[in-house]
Specification:
This is AAA+ ATPase domain-containing protein. The chain has 17 helices and 15 strands. It has about 450 residues and is an alpha/beta fold. Strand 12, helix 9 and strand 13 form a beta-alpha-beta unit. The relative contact order is 0.09.
Length: about 450
C-alpha cells in the first residue's frame, strides 16, 4: 500500500498539470473565437455536438419524407393511415373533422396534426412518432415538405426495419381497403399541390344505364387487373390499366368513372392537361399521385392539342385566327405539354413510377386523337358510350320510376330504335313527375317529336 502511494504524483505535480491544461484550453478557445471565421466556428460546433450526441445518446431516429425519389412515399402514406388508430392518453393534440354533410351526427374523423407526438408500443419496443413540415428553398415553385420522425432505441433499429414497419404497411393496407369515403383531387398550379374534396358520387354498376353484358365485361376486366400484380411483375410491365371512354356528350362517361371508383374503392385524380407548364411539370404532377388510384383526364380532345392526330394537316388560316384570338398562347413562357411527354408517362420509363393505377381518358371525338395514344399498352380498353338502348331505358326506368314493366315500354323501345337520345336526356324526362304513367306518356311524346325533327332535318 505504501509503495502504491509513493507512485502517485504529488499534489504540486497535479496542480502544475491542471494549470498547463487550462492554459492550453484558453489558447485553443482564443484561436477558435478570434482567428477562425464565424461560419467555420458554427460548422465545427455542430459537428462536435453531432459526435457527442451520437456517442452519448441511446436513441435512433428514422426520417420518413412524404416523397421518395420523385414519387409518393408509400411508407409515409402507410404511417398516415396507421397512426390515427394509435392515439392514446399521451397524445396532446389531434386534428378532427367531418366530411359527411348529410350526416351531421356522424362522429368526426381523426388525423395527425403537425408537431403532434404519437407513442406506440410494439413487441416491447417504445416508438415515438412526430409529424413535421417545412418549405423547400425553391423560390419559383416552393412546395411544402412533410415528414415523420420515428424515434426508437438504438438496439431496436433492426427490429423496427424488419418487423415494425412491415406491420404498419399491412395494417395500413387493410385500413385503405375498407375506407368509407373516397377523395377526388384537383391540381392547384399556383401552389403545386393536389387539393382534395370528398367524393360521394352515387353511381354504381348497378345503377349504370348500359348494356348488362358490357357492364359485366368491365367488372371482370377490373377484377383481373387488381388480382394480377405478380403477372405484371413477371412479364416486366407496369401495374396499370388504361381505359378510353368515347361517345357523344351525355352518354354516361363520367358516371362510369364514378362507378369504377366506387367499385374498386380508389381515389380519383382529375387532371386538366393544360395546367401543366411543361413535360417536366407534368411528370411531377403525375408522380405526386398515389398508388391504388384513378388518373382521370376528361375531354382529352378539348383545350389542348397535345393529343391531336399529328397526321392531319392544319389549316394555316385557322392557326392564324387561333393566334389572333388567343395571344396569351404566343407570349406565354411555358412550353406546355407535348404528346411524347404524355406518352412517356403512359408506357415509357416514367410509367413504372407507381403501382395499381387506372388511367382513364374520355373524349367525344375519338377520331381526333393521335393513334400513338390509342394503341394497347396506353389505352388497353376502348369503351363506346352510345345512345340509349332498350336495356338502358329499362334500367333508368327502374331507377327513377321504380318500375320494371309497363305497357308503354313496347312503344318506347320501338321509338328508341329510330331516335338518337342520350341516357342523360332520358333521365331528365323521367324526373319530370312522380306519376309514372304521366312520365311515360310524356316521354313517348318527347321521342315522337324528336323523331319528327330528325326526319325533317334528314330530308
Amino acid at each position: 500500500m505504501a509503495s502504491l502511494l509513493e507512485q502517485l504524483p504529488s499534489f504540486s505535480t497535479i496542480l502544475s498539470m491542471y494549470a498547463s491544461f487550462s492554459a492550453m484550453a484558453m489558447l485553443l478557445r482564443t484561436v477558435f473565437n478570434e482567428m477562425l471565421p464565424k461560419r467555420f466556428q458554427t460548422y465545427i460546433s455542430a459537428k462536435f455536438l453531432d459526435i457527442a450526441s451520437t456517442c452519448l445518446s441511446a436513441d435512433f431516429t428514422f426520417i420518413i419524407e412524404e416523397r421518395w425519389q420523385a414519387v409518393h412515399n408509400e411508407t409515409f402514406r402507410a404511417a398516415e393511415a396507421y397512426l390515427p388508430t394509435r392515439v392514446g392518453p399521451s397524445t396532446e393534440s389531434l386534428l378532427i373533422g367531418s366530411n359527411e354533410p348529410l350526416n351531421p351526427r356522424a362522429p368526426p374523423k381523426q388525423r395527425i396534426p403537425v408537431d403532434c407526438k404519437i407513442v406506440d408500443e410494439f413487441h416491447g419496443m417504445r416508438l415515438e412518432w412526430t409529424l413535421r413540415n417545412s418549405v423547400d428553398s425553391n423560390k419559383y415553385f416552393p412546395r411544402e415538405k412533410r415528414y415523420f420522425r420515428l424515434s426508437c432505441k438504438k438496439r431496436d433499429r433492426d427490429r423496427v426495419m424488419q418487423s415494425y414497419l412491415p406491420h404498419i404497411a399491412r395494417t395500413a393496407q387493410s385500413i385503405l381497403n375498407r375506407r368509407e369515403t373516397l377523395n377526388i383531387y384537383t391540381y392547384n398550379q399556383e401552389s403545386s399541390v393536389w387539393e382534395s374534396a370528398v367524393f360521394k358520387h352515387p353511381a354504381t354498376f348497378e345503377t349504370l344505364a348500359m348494356e348488362p353484358e358490357l357492364k359485366q365485361v368491365i367488372k371482370e376486366d377490373l377484377d383481373t387487373f387488381v388480382a394480377r400484380k405478380d403477372f405484371f411483375e413477371g412479364v416486366g410491365r407496369a401495374w396499370k390499366r388504361g381505359y378510353l371512354l368515347y361517345g357523344p356528350p351525355g352518354t354516361g362517361k363520367s358516371s362510369l368513372v364514378a362507378a369504377i371508383a366506387n367499385y374498386l374503392r380508389y381515389n380519383i385524380y382529375d387532371l386538366q392537361v393544360q395546367t401543366a407548364r411543361s413535360d417536366a411539370d407534368l411528370r411531377h404532377i403525375l408522380t405526386s399521385t398515389t398508388n391504388r388510384s384513378i388518373l382521370l383526364i376528361e375531354d382529352i380532345d378539348c383545350g389542348s392539342k397535345v393529343s391531336h392526330d399529328r397526321t392531319r394537316v392544319q389549316d394555316d388560316h385557322e392557326d392564324t385566327h387561333d393566334e389572333q384570338q388567343n395571344p396569351s398562347r404566343i407570349s406565354s413562357n411555358d412550353p406546355g405539354v407535348t404528346l411524347s411527354g404524355l406518352l412517356n408517362f403512359l408506357d415509357g420509363l416514367w410509367s413504372s413510377c407507381g403501382d395499381e393505377r387506372i388511367i382513364i381518358f374520355t373524349t367525344n371525338h375519338k377520331d381526333k386523337l393521335d393513334q400513338a395514344l390509342l394503341r394497347p399498352g396506353r389505352m388497353d380498353v376502348h369503351i363506346y358510350m352510345g345512345y340509349c338502348t332498350a336495356a338502358a331505358f329499362r334500367k333508368l326506368s327502374a331507377t327513377y320510376l321504380g318500375i320494371e314493366h309497363h305497357p308503354c315500354f313496347v312503344t318506347i323501345e320501338n321509338l328508341l330504335q329510330s331516335v338518337t337520345v342520350t341516357p342523360a336526356e332520358v333521365a331528365q324526362q323521367l324526373m319530370k313527375s312522380d306519376d309514372p304513367e304521366a312520365v311515360l306518356r310524356s316521354f313517348i311524346h318527347f321521342l315522337g317529336s324528336k323523331r319528327n325533327r330528325e326526319t325533317e332535318i334528314g330530308t
